[in-house]
Write a structure and sequence with these properties.
12 strands; 30% helix
């Protein structure tokens, strides 16, 4: 199968490869990014443009009336939300609503290289992502007594990284954390030796990019930057112990990150309020040597919905989500493109017939498989997060 051709979206837009907040107030940072996204997607129709900008833009929420004010700042608690690699702030919207309902001042950032077009990940560095999270934590700390960080995948990695350098951070909530990825990603930067001659060599995946809130195409630089970030974080974790409360939700079947490293990380967390919710196809099989008080096992198999397992992509989205949920407008079928186009077409056009789950070898043998994009147990996840919040110091 020939490599799919590169298109305009696979080139940098020139709009979004560096952190662009500087000394801005957070509302101005949001406005600047909404303007940038509007220019990046100016070819879309008016209705689509508004939808695309709203989903990809950073945002902020204030707690409803009735919650106690802070002693030193306007609000008692604040939550900074950071999305994952190739993702957008859309993925954090439901978590944001939950934290807002629990009295948190919420801010969500847009990582450089995201929300515009995949080519903007070709030149970005993880240090620019870290600058963005540091800015968000700083702005949140101006308004709240207690700073908390929540992140999905790479956003979780960046949240841990920030917590080790910022003693204002009082706790972490991590979802499918990317604490370790495969070693081949370390070699991804070598493409620069020859990609001037073969531009497609800069890409791991060249896909149709049908999702308006997440890139399907994926450049090697993005993998290399995440690998460098995880390597730096691992070195720092060897020198520092996390003594703040940590909540993690992860899938045992995750094919993007190494869940075994998440278990090792959580086992070293010292705070007694810490908790790991692990989605697994074997809820009766307790991980050997893991502290029982820290673990909640959740059955990820839902036969009546043809769900075979949870997935890296499924943790933070509820079933009712209009884009990724049960009746959502998007189906994740890109694993069939372009090698198995008949399966790709069937997966897109007959979602009611598909199995759903992680892209494990066993699951792929079952039949046409969509990668699961929502959490059928999201209501139970909110209960677990509520319990964690209620036990915070």
């Amino acid at each position: 199968m020939a490599t799919p051709p590169l298109e305009a979206r696979h080139q940098p837009s020139g709009l979004n490869f560096q952190f662009n907040g500087s000394r801005l107030a957070f509302a101005d940072y949001v406005a600047r990014n909404r303007d940038m996204l509007g220019r990046a997607h100016s070819g879309s129709g008016a209705a689509d443009l508004e939808k695309i900008v709203d989903g990809n833009a950073p945002f902020e929420l204030k707690p409803p009336a009735g919650f106690s004010a802070g002693q030193e700042k306007t609000y008692r608690r604040g939550m900074l939300l950071t999305h994952g690699l190739s993702d957008s702030p859309y993925s954090m919207r439901h978590l944001a609503a939950f934290f807002q309902e629990n009295g948190f001042r919420v801010m969500a950032v847009l990582l450089p290289g995201h929300g515009t077009q995949p080519g903007d990940l070709l030149e970005v560095t993880w240090q620019e992502w870290a600058k963005t999270v540091a800015y968000g934590a700083y702005k949140l700390a101006e308004e709240v007594d207690e700073v908390y960080l929540a992140g999905y995948s790479t956003g979780a990695t960046l949240s841990v990284y920030q917590s080790l350098r910022d003693n204002r951070v009082r706790g972490l909530l991590l979802f499918s954390p990317a604490l370790k990825i495969t070693r081949w990603a370390a070699l991804a930067g070598l493409h620069k030796l020859y990609s001037w001659l073969i531009p497609s060599a800069r890409w791991v995946d060249i896909k149709p990019d049908l999702d308006i809130y997440k890139y399907e195409s994926f450049p090697k630089n993005a993998a290399a930057q995440l690998y460098a970030l995880t390597k730096e974080l691992s070195a720092q974790l060897q020198q520092h112990e996390l003594d703040i409360p940590v909540f993690i939700a992860a899938s045992a079947d995750d094919m993007t990150v190494k869940t075994s490293v998440t278990l090792e990380f959580m086992a070293r967390v010292r705070h007694p309020s810490s908790k790991l919710v692990l989605y697994t196809t074997e809820p009766e099989k307790f991980p050997p040597g893991f502290p029982a008080a820290k673990l909640e096992l959740m059955n990820s198999v839902v036969p009546e919905q043809k769900i075979l397992s949870s997935a890296h992509t499924a943790i933070v989205i509820p079933p009712e989500d209009k884009h990724y949920g049960v009746a959502g407008e998007y189906s994740n079928c890109v694993h069939y493109y372009p090698e198995e186009m008949e399966k790709y077409a069937a997966c897109l056009t007959h979602p009611e017939q598909d199995f759903q789950g992680e892209l494990t070898e066993e699951n792929l043998k079952t039949g046409i498989l969509r990668r699961l994009m929502y959490n059928p147990n999201f209501a139970a996840l909110k209960v677990s997060m509520q319990r964690f919040i209620d036990e915070l110091p």
